[in-house]
Design a protein that fits this description.
binds adenosine-5'-triphosphate; Rossmann fold; ATP binding; six-stranded mixed β-sheet; 27% strand; AAA+_ATPase; alpha/beta; 12 strands
């Protein structure tokens, strides 16, 4: 599934929040969206997910403009985990994951063996098998995040859109999740604040600043001292750690 944003702009009265963004994500590619708070990452993801109607430009999946897609078709094509995803209900973890199967069923049919198999596989990938029957309200923040990710995997779509999926996750689950998004055949757009993990696991990074894309490319091309200074307003040195991965060392902010 190839995803394109073409000259996309979106805003609210008096404020343009996403400004003329053009972005192509190849089928199977994992693209990391990075940028400081308020740079427009979530807004762009919501446009790409079809939850915001662009003021200008378009979002195109495999050549089709999604503006005309009904919600069910969107749910069959893309799964989206939002940053503040919450579920205000008495559902259990397996039932939250089963929500991902909704678009695959007719309204009158309950889950079948294939739905249960997809949910079981998704729970296993997110290390949640032991919590399948646990009520949602009893989960920790990281367990809730993983349950939402399991819901998105159970949805079994060709595109996966993730907004800060590492929120609340401990380091092992962060690494496992990034490994998962790196190795999946799905097309992934993932907004991340951890720049080193973004560079390590994404095929390409897209740097946003004030609603627009200012740089894109391989981690080493985007994570440079000058971009970090210009966009994040930090003094930093970029090098390699002992494993050969990009590492960013930050200096104290000037006062
Ligand atoms: N519905 C809205 N009404 C008014 N302002 C909005 C709305 N949605 C987003 N914004 C503003 O647009 C800007 C971009 O927000 P967005 O959530 O897209 O940024 P972000 O890059 O995802 O930030 P963060 O890293 O903090 O999650 C912010 O200044 C935000 O306050």
């Amino acid at each position: 599934m190839r995803i394109e944003a073409k000259n996309l702009s979106w805003g609210v009265p008096g404020k343009t929040i996403v400004r003329d963004v053009t972005l192509t994500v190849a089928s199977g590619e994992t693209v990391g969206l990075i940028g400081p708070n308020g740079s427009g990452k979530s807004s762009l993801l919501r446009c790409i997910a079809g939850l915001r109607t662009p003021d200008a430009g378009s979002v195109v999946y495999d050549g089709e403009d999604i503006a005309r897609w009904p919600a069910r078709q969107r749910a069959l094509k893309m799964a989206f985990v939002e940053q503040t995803a919450d579920t205000d209900s008495d559902l259990r973890v397996a039932e939250v994951a089963m929500l991902g199967r909704t678009a695959h069923r007719s309204r009158w049919r309950g889950p079948d063996a294939s739905d249960h198999a997809k949910v079981a596989a998704a729970l296993a990938r997110l290390d949640l098998e032991g919590l399948a029957d646990r009520p949602w309200k009893q989960l920790s923040g990281g367990e809730r995040q993983r349950a939402h990710l399991a819901r998105a995997l159970a949805q079994d779509t060709q595109a996966l859109l993730l907004d800060e999926p590492l929120n609340h996750l401990d380091v092992r689950h962060q690494l496992e999740l990034m490994e998962l998004v790196h190795s999946t055949t799905q097309t992934v757009v993932v907004a991340l604040h951890d720049l080193a993990l973004a560079a390590r696991y994404c095929d390409r990074l897209v740097l946003m600043h004030r609603g627009t894309v200012v740089a894109e490319g391989a981690g080493a091309d985007v994570l440079t001292s000058s971009w970090l200074r210009d966009v994040f307003d930090v003094e930093a040195e970029v090098g390699r750690d002992s494993l050969g991965h990009l590492a960013v060392g930050y200096r104290e902010p000037a006062r």
